[in-house]
Amino acid sequence: QVQLVESGGGLVQAGGSLRLSCAASGSIFNINTMTWYRQAPGKQRELVAAVTSAGSINYADSVKGRFTISRDNAKNTVYLQMNSLKPEDTAVYYCNLQQRTVWGITHNYWGQGTQVTVSS
Question: Torsion angle of alpha carbons 65, 28, 26, 102, nearest 10°?
Fold first, then answer.
C-alpha cells in the first residue's frame, strides 16, 4: 500500500503563488508517475501536471508557463509551484501516484486533496 499526504493549499489573491507538496510513503517502486489533478465544483477532475520517476514532465495547456512540477525521488515527494494564479485555478488539488507491478498490474493511489482558492 501507498499513502499520499498533500499540503500547501490555501487562499490567495489573483496573481499570487502557492506551493503544494505531496509526500508518498509505503511500497513505492522505483519506476512511477506522480501527477497533480484538480477538481472544481461541478466539473470533472482534470490533469494539471505529471512527472515520471525518469523526469519526463507534461502540463495541461491551461497551466503551462505558470505552474512547475518537480519531484525529489529520495524523499518520494512531488511539488507543484503555482504562480500567477487565477480565480479559475480554484479547485481541490489531488496528488496521484501510479505504478505498475512486475506482473503488469497498474495501481493508482490518491491523496485526500487540498483546497486552493484564488480570489479575484
Answer: 140
Q: Across 8-120, where does the E strand assignment appear? A: 10-13, 18-26, 33-39, 46-52, 57-59, 67-72, 77-82, 91-100, 106-110, 114-119
78: closest CA among 12, 29, 5? 5
**Could you read off the pLDDT tens digit of each residue along the chain, which spans 120 residues?**
899 999 999 999 999 999 999 999 999 998 899 999 999 999 999 999 999 999 999 999 999 999 999 999 999 999 999 999 999 999 999 999 999 989 989 999 999 999 999 999
